[in-house]
């Protein structure tokens, strides 16, 4: 009989793990907190998963942290094919959505069927942003770049025509759905930066 | 009364999340799978957490995947202070252990007491490598650089005086404790590289 190590199930999982490495080369709009270089999507995924874990008591609705962490580990995998689309950048939302769905089909489709469907369902749930776990994950994903920009003295805010109203509408609204306490805590610092730099 | 957002608990958790960003600047001995640059410890932590999730059915002893993922998310945080010590490099093991324990005291100590103690206990469990969850996490942490080196045509193996016997002793022994199936699956490719490059 064939040794277990050559089972097609294992080879598919391994191929996905190898392909995932490419997320480390996808550059994001934001920088590291020290401003030294652009953040990559792989390390961003680690940071938001860790934040979802350590900030969990501050979720608005108690979330299943393990599920939120799993969502965040896979939430940007589509960027391997579709790239990162900065929140304050200009892009065709329908086109991005099409590209990301196609990427999800290919990438989650590398896994054995049930495993791929489970991770794809997690990603769909994250994107739909309606369950407590997805709202918590989304809030962390949106607030992490805010922390980066505050730490870096502006960071990616300097690269885009973003003002306090856009921040409230595009970022604050989403953070507040999952983590209003965190948004409210950061608001004085955010307002202070925009008052000085985008009066 | 004080607003909840200024509670010391939240500020400590947030400070830890901000400090954690520095792990993205710690360079490892290994490269990305495409060989283009050194891997950083932050992105490595994401990759091993994801691998622990997608390869879980191939753990030797069934592991609590959520716990193994949490361990891997925090397993390298000590490197913010202590740096990375490549497995095939030469270093004083006792000195490294001392530096890492001091780093763990400081970094996990930034969190509220119970949260910090919980993550510190997870890290201690990972380092002790005796529970099923830790053995699974360790196996993944050890095998990920092997995948990187195989993908990169040698990678960090070229930088150190490592041969097949050292691979078996330092890497294989640890991978086999948690994931013998994975080690056995990779063994033909590993042997082939060393047969050609370190005959
Ligand atoms: Ca590691």
From TrEMBL, chains A, B:
Keywords for the protein's UniProt record, in alphabetical order: Hydrolase, Metal-binding
Gene Ontology, cellular component aspect: cytoplasm
Top-level enzyme category: hydrolase
Keyword set includes Transmembrane: no
Location of the HD/PDEase domain: 37-155
Enzymatic reactions: a 2'-deoxyribonucleoside 5'-phosphate + H2O = a 2'-deoxyribonucleoside + phosphate
Gene Ontology molecular function: any one: metal ion binding
Cofactor(s) required for function per UniProt: Mn(2+); Co(2+)
E.C. numbers: 3.1.3.89
Subunit record text: Homodimer.
Name the UniProt record assigns to this protein: 5'-deoxynucleotidase
